[in-house]
């Protein structure tokens, strides 16, 4: 089951710009995205950036999705709980 797909719309609607930037940093640091993917996402407005982040990570598979979920738990525990990603 693709947990990120189930919460995709809520994630896009509710994640904030500062949280997205922190998630991008963590995803880059952990090797899930590369510099080009990070720069591409950073250049977009918030909703498009959120869409790009979640879709890019989902396409990379379950391990990448797990890294994003864990990073979201670290960066924004309230949104993590709201999305019921436990």
TrEMBL record:
<feature type="domain" description="CARD">
    <location>
        <begin position="1"/>
        <end position="86"/>
    </location>
</feature>
<dbReference type="InterPro" id="IPR011029">
    <property type="entry name" value="DEATH-like_dom_sf"/>
</dbReference>
<dbReference type="InterPro" id="IPR001315">
    <property type="entry name" value="CARD"/>
</dbReference>
<protein>
    <recommendedName>
        <fullName>CARD domain-containing protein</fullName>
    </recommendedName>
</protein>
<dbReference type="Pfam" id="PF00619">
    <property type="entry name" value="CARD"/>
</dbReference>
<dbReference type="GO" id="GO:0042981">
    <property type="term" value="P:regulation of apoptotic process"/>
</dbReference>
């Amino acid at each position: 089951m693709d947990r990120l797909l189930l919460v995709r719309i809520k994630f896009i609607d509710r994640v904030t710009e500062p949280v997205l930037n922190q998630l991008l940093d963590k995803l880059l640091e952990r090797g899930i995205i590369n510099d080009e993917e990070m720069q591409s996402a950073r250049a977009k407005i918030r909703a498009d950036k959120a869409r790009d982040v979640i879709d890019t990570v989902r396409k990379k598979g379950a391990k990448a999705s797990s890294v994003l979920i864990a990073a979201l738990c670290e960066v924004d525990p309230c949104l993590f709980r709201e999305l019921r990603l436990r």
